[in-house]
Design goal:
Shape: elongated
Oligomer: single chain
Radius of gyration: 22 Å
Largest sheet: none
Number of strands: 0
Helix content: over 70%
Order of helices and strands: HHHH
Low-confidence stretches: none
Structural class: mainly alpha
Number of helices: 4
Strand content: under 5%
Length: about 130
């Protein structure tokens, strides 16, 4: 159809990708558990295939990034609303201090996102 636009549901796409990815992570763990050399009391990392290692490491980075992005969203919520000002003022925290603190948290979280992304890229280049 000429001139038509198709609406893309990004949340649905990400949900589907996440579900498939988590299923692949579970399959990797299940493959190791079925290995005759599997030892419940020891590390079994050596039993993972290269693809399974890559999958589980990627899941670790994805999880860390997801948590950091969630924290960034929380900072936005915190900055928008100055809570119980009487309590904070009584303890020496005015609105400027409150916003400054949460901006510092935001900068820290953004820096952490960059660090995790650098680690992820670095680990991918070394494999």
């Amino acid at each position: 159809m000429k001139g038509s636009t198709r609406q893309i549901d990004n949340e649905a796409i990400w949900a589907e990708v996440a579900e498939k990815f988590l299923n692949e992570c579970k399959a990797a763990v299940d493959r190791v558990k079925r290995d005759p050399k599997f030892d419940r009391t020891d590390s079994n990392y050596h039993l993972l295939s290269m693809l399974d290692r890559y999958t589980l490491e990627t899941q670790n980075y994805w999880s860390r990034l997801s948590g950091l992005l969630s924290d960034v969203q929380k900072v936005e919520v915190m900055i928008r609303r100055f809570p119980d000002s009487k309590y904070l003022l009584k303890n020496g925290v005015d609105q400027i201090d409150y916003i400054k603190y949460h901006m510092e948290v935001l900068y820290h979280k953004l820096s952490s996102i960059l660090d995790v992304m650098r680690l992820m890229v670095g680990s991918r280049l070394s494999t």
